[in-house]
Design brief:
Elements: E1 2-9, H1 19-32, E2 39-44, E3 50-56, E4 70-71, E5 77-85, H2 88-93, H3 108-117, E6 127-135, E7 140-145, E8 154-158, E9 161-165, H4 168-175, H5 182-191, E10 205-206, E11 211-216, E12 219-224, H6 239-257, E13 264-267, H7 272-283, E14 290-296, H8 304-314, E15 317-323, H9 325-337, H10 348-358, E16 364-366, H11 371-375, H12 379-390, H13 395-406, H14 417-426, H15 432-438, H16 445-451, H17 454-460, H18 466-477, H19 482-492, H20 494-509, E17 513-515, H21 521-527, H22 543-549, H23 555-558, H24 569-572, H25 576-586, H26 600-611, H27 617-632
Helix pairs in contact: 1-4, 5-17, 6-21, 6-22, 7-8, 9-10, 10-20, 13-14, 18-19, 19-20, 25-26, 25-27
Length: 637
């Protein structure tokens, strides 16, 4: 695991930075990434205004401390890389010109392949990675992100100079001042995160998964080397054959993800994904694994009973981390201090608390991200099928049902029945793509229109916000099976910009590497050959996946419904301690006046939420994190 950064002034018609300036800036960028590796290195080209840096955290062959960035044997191609290449041994064995010395790293395969095949080598890579390749022969800079978007890569182009980094903070260190992206802020209010390629800053973008940037002949361009094909092709294979192939690929992925000479653990929530991951991982790991789960005092949020059963089955060293209101509220300032942009998704503080504990024992964690998006695990997919049925009802009947549901008393339980029914009926009568995002919202677009300043909304909508972005991505799939398009939306939006962004940013704060075996290229492609009817229907989810899980888990665990991983902030924000925290950061917060039409509105929401008249947990938590982040940044919003 590493962090990468760099600067390339490619437009030589403009004034070039001095070598001293390049050296100073690359040092500042590396300093901003200090938590991503135990040592660092840089190159500054003697002939061109280019500097590339890399921080390295040795995970594979950790005793091998080689110079970074890496260079090929001739010293004319350089590589700065973040991540792991799981098929490096196979690729090196097939290389047209073998190395004259033992490979220093799994990343060596990239240099060897690129030297002979150029950009075409990217299609062969299996792993999680963000790469910067400087080809001195062709005066070409190549930036690459892995197929699933596991490893982040951000960039900024200004006045003929390209800056890039694994984290936004390294770009901020050398590119200030930056301006707030109102479309990104609008999306944050809707979703609690910012869908890539946008970031909170207008000038900074994320490179999308499966794409590369090439800078050559004083030209800057972006292209795809791999595309997800959500419709897949009809393989003509039986469910048994598809299950067997999927199981074999998953087992191989887990085995390759276990390759490290560092202590290793697994994030074991108690759900079917992490449970299967743990059982298969234990089969390929000779020493006892460390496993980690979050324990909540609120029964509807706690899943540790299932996690403990799996831990006992594999005889792991199990760590049960208690998550409560006091711990979360106390951790908020430190966690938010590490955020590059507003991010309020419910699991980010528990993830921080687990990583704090895990770093005491391990350097590598395996996690189950991606299984729901590939195999149809979210309840929202089945909700779309129910929506198709209920949208056929007469509008008057739908309205009466909606009014009845709206009268249900508010519950603070996790994704309670009243919460699900109210959200579901609010999503009837709108497009499926709109409902897909709407059901997961913090603020609805109607609420934003009511609460926020018209000029803020107008400025935000001059760009593509999340709802039009989702519709565009969905339309691009042009699927006969539109349900497969919804899995594709989650793979492209929430998986990349929420779950994977959170995993990298928080784990790297603690110099931990998180690996996600479900998101290797071949398994993604395999999942696309599985018909939707083998993924979910009106009453079941993850149908084929659970069939595999039953071979390794007790039937009740293999069939267990998804709980999700978040915190009871709706309940906590209704307590006296939660209300005090909200008052401290929201009441009279003039620094939110640039977006809020009336600062009385948060106070009214707080009052109604505490009384139980309305559940405003999601919007209040979203505003709280924004206010705290804004204060930390010096009131940029």
């Amino acid at each position: 695991m590493c962090g990468i950064c760099g600067i390339y002034h490619f437009d030589l018609s403009r004034d070039c930075p001095t070598r001293s300036d390049l050296n100073n800036k690359i040092d500042r960028m590396l300093a901003a990434l200090a938590h991503r590796g135990t040592y660092s290195g840089k190159i500054i080209d003697p002939d061109l205004p280019l500097a590339i840096g890399m921080r390295r955290l040795p995970i594979v062959d950790s005793r091998n401390r080689f110079t970074v960035p890496l260079a090929n044997e001739r010293g004319d191609i350089f590589l700065s890389a973040n991540g792991e290449i799981y098929n490096s041994g196979e690729l090196l064995a097939q290389a047209p010109r073998p190395l004259s010395r033992p490979p220093r790293s799994d990343l060596e395969a990239i240099l060897t392949l690129y030297e002979k095949q150029g950009i075409d080598c990217l299609a062969l890579l299996q792993g999680m990675f963000a790469l910067a390749i400087w080809d001195k022969r062709k005066k070409r800079l190549l930036l690459v992100r892995d197929q699933a978007g596991v490893k982040p890569l951000f960039y900024l182009e200004r006045n003929g100079t390209l800056y890039f980094s694994s984290e936004i903070k390294a770009l901020k260190a050398v590119c200030a001042p930056l301006s707030i992206n109102h479309a990104a802020l609008y999306d944050y209010l809707c979703l609690q995160y910012i869908p890539q390629p946008k970031t909170i800053y207008k000038e900074i973008q994320a490179l999308p998964p499966g794409e590369y940037i090439i800078v050559e002949n004083q030209q800057f361009s972006r292209a795809a080397y791999w595309r997800s094909h959500p419709a897949g092709t009809d393989s003509g294979k039986s469910p048994s054959e598809l299950a067997e192939q999927t199981e074999q690929l998953l087992a191989a992925n887990i085995k390759s993800a276990l390759a490290t000479d560092q202590p290793l653990g697994i994030l074991l929530s108690g759900g079917v994904d992490s449970s299967l991951l743990t059982v298969l991982g234990a089969r390929h790991h000779p020493a006892p694994l460390h496993t980690y789960s979050a324990a909540f005092t609120e029964a509807s949020f706690d899943d540790t009973a299932a996690a403990v059963r799996v831990a006992q089955k594999v005889k792991s060293i199990h760590h049960r981390i208690t998550i409560d209101q006091d711990k979360v509220f106390a951790a908020l300032p430190e966690v938010i201090a590490g955020l590059d942009q507003p991010f309020a998704e419910g699991s980010f503080v528990p993830y921080e608390l687990i990583c704090r504990e895990a770093k005491k024992d391990v350097r590598v964690l395996l996690a189950g991200e991606g299984a729901d998006e590939l195999f149809g695990g979210y309840e929202i997919y089945r909700a779309l099928l129910w929506k198709r049925l209920l949208d056929r009802l007469p509008p008057g009947l739908t309205d009466r049902l909606r009014n009845l549901v709206a009268r249900l008393p508010v519950s603070r339980d996790k994704v309670s029945l009243d919460f699900k029914l109210k959200r579901f009926f609010e999503g009837l009568g709108v497009s499926e793509v709109y409902a897909h995002l709407f059901w997961r919202r913090a603020f609805s677009e109607a609420e934003i229109s009511r609460f926020c300043r018209p000029e803020f909304i107008t400025q935000a909508r001059t760009q593509e916000t999340a709802f039009p972005q989702a519709q565009r991505l969905f339309n691009e799939t042009a699927l006969a099976d539109s349900l497969a398009g919804h899995l594709y939306l989650d793979q492209q939006i929430s998986l990349v910009s929420d779950l994977l962004y959170r995993a990298d940013l928080i784990s790297m704060r603690h110099t931990l590497e998180v690996r996600v075996p479900f998101l290797q290229k071949e398994l993604i492609e395999q999942s696309q050959t599985i018909p939707t009817l083998l993924k979910f229907n009106l009453f079941q989810d993850k149908i084929l996946f659970r069939r595999i899980a039953k071979k390794y888990l007790p039937s009740d665990l293999a069939e267990k419904r998804k709980k999700g991983f978040n915190i009871p902030y709706s309940a906590w924000l209704a307590t006296s301690q939660g209300q005090a925290l909200l008052r401290e950061h929201l009441t009279g917060n003039n620094h939110l006046q640039s977006i809020m039409e009336n600062l009385i509105i948060p106070a009214e929401m707080m009052r109604d939420h505490q009384r139980g008249a309305k559940d405003y947990g999601h919007p209040l938590w979203t505003l709280l994190i924004l206010a705290m982040w804004n204060k930390k940044e010096g009131y940029v919003v």
